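In this section we walk through a basic example: taking a raw amino acid sequence and producing a predicted 3D structure, encoded as discrete structure tokens. The instruction is simple. Fold the sequence below.
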Amino acid sequence: MSDAPVRKTLTAGDGTPVSYLTEGDGPPVLLLHGFVSSAIGWWMNGAAQRLAETHRVLAPDFRGHGESGKPSDPAAYGPRLVSDLGALLDAEGLDAADVVGFSMGAEVGLAMAAWHPDRVRSLTLTGSGWSPPEIMTEYRKWFGILVTPENGRPPHPNAAALAAVIEGMPSLVGLPGDAVAALPMPVRGIIGENDDERPWMERIATMRPGFVPHVLEGADHLGTWRSPDFPDLLARAVNGRL
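The resulting token sequence is shown next.
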């Protein structure tokens, strides 16, 4: 395992630069971050280092986030978040990877699994799941909390891009039930007991009766991400032992 992640950049089909971090050796695993976050968060909470003990970790900054390009047109988002992941795998010479997503990353990961199942060996959803169109209310709420200036806080430097991310999300959420039922890969879940998005995780079981997510006692949405148990739980999930 390397001592620190290496940053790379690819150019997507529409010319947008997509930055990503990589560390470790072994089977590839894609780590997909949440809204208003970035790839480095996986190292800040220790999950990337834990997975890099046994895997080749690949963690992109979604366009609109981190060091990736930040177009302000909503048409640059939505399905392009998924196609960027395929471009990343191609750039690394990979056919497929285990996919892990947190919050928005879980929703993008689920769409990738439904649309390109040949590229997803297993899917681990955390902090969200099979979200209905109503999830857009949550995105707009968090945009207001994290991006909109208040109490003298300056405007978020990526506000226009993040607004465009939100406007592109309806094309990724609200997948039909038969698409969820038909996923050919193992699907695992980790969710906080008090996470507002827990219902979207648990409703996967209506289409996949064997799906039973791991519930982190007492944790809310961000509490799952920050839990000291989270890195080991992810490692167990990716290795099929959760």
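Looking at the output, two observations stand out. The first strand starts at residue 6 and ends at 11. The mean pLDDT is 94. In the next section we compare this with other chains.
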